[in-house]
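Dear colleagues,

For the upcoming journal club I promised to circulate an example of a predicted protein-ligand complex. I picked one with iron/sulfur cluster because it came up in last month's discussion. The inputs are reproduced below in full, followed by the predicted structure.
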Amino acid sequence: MPDTTHYRICPLCEACCGLEIKVSDGKVSSVRGHEADVLSAGYICPKGVALKDLHEDPDRLRAPLIKRNGKFETATWEEAFAEIDRRLPALIAAHGRNATGIVVGNPSAHKIGLLTYFGKLARALGTKNVFSASTLDQMPKQLASGLMFGHWLSIALPDIARTDYLLVLGANPLASNGSMWTVPDFKGKAKAMQARGGKLVVIDPRRTETAAIADAHHFIRPGSDVFLLAAMVQTLFAENLVTLGNVTDWTVGVEQVSLAVAPFTPEVAAPRCGIPADTIRGLARTLATTPRAAVYGRIGTCTQEFGTLASWLIDVINVLTGHLDVPGGVMFAKSAAFASNTAGQSGIGKGVSTGRHHARVSKAPEVYGELPMTCLSEEIETPGTGQIKTLITVATNPVLSSPDGPRLAKALDTLDFMVSMDIYLNETTRHADVILPGVSPLEDLHYDVAFPQLSWRNHARYSPPVFERAANQPEEWQTLLKLAAIVQGKGPHVDANVLDDAQFAEDAQRLFGAHADAVIAATAQFKGPQRGLDVALRSGPYGDQFGRKPEGLNLQKVMASNATGGIDLGELQPRIPEILRTPSGKVELAPALLLQDLKRAVQYLQAPAADLVIIGRRDVRTNNSWMHNLPVLAKGPFRCTALVHPSDAARLNLENGGQAEIRNGERSVQAQVQISSDMMPGVVSLPHGWGHDQPGTQLRVAAQRPGTNLNALLDDQLRDPLSGNAVLGGVAVTMQVLSLAP
Ligand SMILES: Nc1nc2c(c(=O)[nH]1)N[C@H]1C(S)=C(S)[C@@H](COP(=O)(O)OP(=O)(O)OC[C@H]3O[C@@H](n4cnc5c(=O)[nH]c(N)nc54)[C@H](O)[C@@H]3O)O[C@H]1N2
Ligand SMILES: Nc1nc2c(c(=O)[nH]1)N[C@H]1C(S)=C(S)[C@@H](COP(=O)(O)OP(=O)(O)OC[C@H]3O[C@@H](n4cnc5c(=O)[nH]c(N)nc54)[C@H](O)[C@@H]3O)O[C@H]1N2
Ligand code: SF4
Ligand SMILES: [Mo]
């Protein structure tokens, strides 16, 4: 076989780097950054290299598994679909639609097949019990942005290429490579900003890798960003620093915000967040007086009790300092395909709302079509109409990734039937009756559906598969359609391609009316997600409009740009008012839901500090719960350690390398102690996604150093009430020595 070179977008994190993959003798011989890539320009991190290990991992499932008499047996695809058909429709008929839950996880955001076809299965099921990793992550940001700008994915992104001051709260892009912000090589871009005289300032309870390259770092008490941010807003008003700049005519609610933040003076907020009043004022003043400045917050600001408020206040500051929608401030991407904020009437819309239905047990409101992930256990456990009896999981491992994983593991064992679409037999899928494996990323075509909507620069890139998949292996969109057909009573033998053709014809009728036949003919060379992508590109903001704008984009053109690194669509451009989809046609600075919740925050302004609280952490060689099985990433120092400040270690008699018990009420875990002056005193940090010591999994490398499951310690009843997002940090714990260093 001749040596070949392939260009593939990395699907492992939101940086979406373009990779150059060389293949010799049918095997990956090297993975490098693709220098010509228009988005990432050659950047790569160690996980990109690990795609080879993932492809070759002997533990990665290549055939379906069916559990019989408590043991998994390898099965053919026909047998697997037949087993699902034998059991699932009857259970749905007996218990009703809502008795099936469906959970979708993080990797689906990186797979066009899963992302564009998951909804078809969810609609076929017709259940209200839809859950996703979004409520363990960014739902607060999506809700706040939706309320302000009118759509769930209209997220204001720092214009890092042109800014002179970047304030980062609760994010560590040097480890995570960025999130809700596709910004490959954040470090290089931050250094370039510093080289032109700009400043990076980080607010984090740990002096992180990002804080280490920053010009300033301030510790913050976990969970208290809302108080810091509200006090900054209060300062802007009190010191007459408010300037709305370009969005003056397009913003409503300034006066209401001014009144609502009045109680949050820097003096009151300072002890609550652990940042001196003068520093709070200084941050506000610098933002107001720096012409090109931006505030960015990420998971640390979302996974807390006031996550939606904190996410909102970040953009309130961006607006009030005149930095929204201007170069060097925060701006909106304009995606070539799939973006709701480029579709329909521009400048005005329905906005977003929550609570169209509610969780049965907790009554938590639906948000963006979902219920909080942390309601899943109780929805399975609690008897009554609508109790979840059967479950479908798609690319998710909530036993490790969701608070109180052990409770969920027990609940999963009580289900009547469970199907998992996953590539591993892991802590969650071991509870399934049938596991349907996805393909290796190197056997899958790729186009990022979500991330161009969040990218530092506009672009369109497509990757063909590097390897052909096994002849009998369905693509994941086909598996989703087959499952949809089974739950609709069409049986296990329907051809997914035939179903897809029929659905596409229906969609084309709905979307294009009299032009439907022309659209079907124009896209006839593609099927499945490719066809959907061609339609989205061609009808999108840069599209060829099916020939009416011949110079515009279509899938063929984007495909043709693969080896040259994709199509660059330029730096971010101002988009207000065109991007707005709020009912007022304005930036809604003071949504009622948020003003109301700010009153709740006022009540917590004086809450006393616990002696010790726990937060999470990410390491560049990990990816949530599922990449600890890849040798190239698993090697090196043990990463699942509990970081504590020397003063806490001294107070609690903890020794570096010793074992400690961390306790939260009834829940406790054991972890290895690592003493670090990078921690804020009174805060312990333990990464999530570990705990690979569960019986019945097939993760041989991960099991050698299983680590500790942080989520075994966290309470699944703690949520941000507006977004339903889990509280994953700032939780009070105690620590006690178990053994000293060996
Ligand atoms: N305490 C704490 N908990 C957290 C977090 C935290 O910061 N602290 N972070 C949260 C965040 S941000 C997120 S996004 C969630 C993530 O939580 P999950 O959505 O559960 O995602 P992962 O843990 O990444 O697990 C991914 C699953 O998908 C499978 N998988 C991988 N690739 C594929 C594929 O191509 N096809 C299919 N079908 N399956 C695949 C993996 O085997 C694994 O089972 O975790 C959350 N949990
Ligand atoms: N290497 C690697 N990369 C990843 C992932 C991974 O697991 N590993 N996961 C991916 C996923 S799913 C996501 S969502 C992104 C997340 O991307 P990031 O948001 O950058 O995630 P983290 O690196 O966890 O950074 C969160 C920071 O918040 C801090 N923090 C905790 N509590 C608080 C608080 O109350 N206030 C403030 N201000 N800070 C706080 C933590 O100390 C931590 O430094 O990363 C993605 N990229
Ligand atoms: S930063 Fe690493 S994991 Fe993320 S897309 Fe780039 S190479 Fe892949
Ligand atoms: Mo995430």
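Two points we might discuss: DSSP finds 26 helices and 29 strands in the chain. The pocket of MGD (ligand 1) is lined by residues 105-107, 111, 133, 136-137, 299, 394-398, 401, 421-424, 426, 438, 616, 624-626, 688-689, 710-711, 714, 728 (CB under 6 Å).

See you all on Thursday,
B. R.
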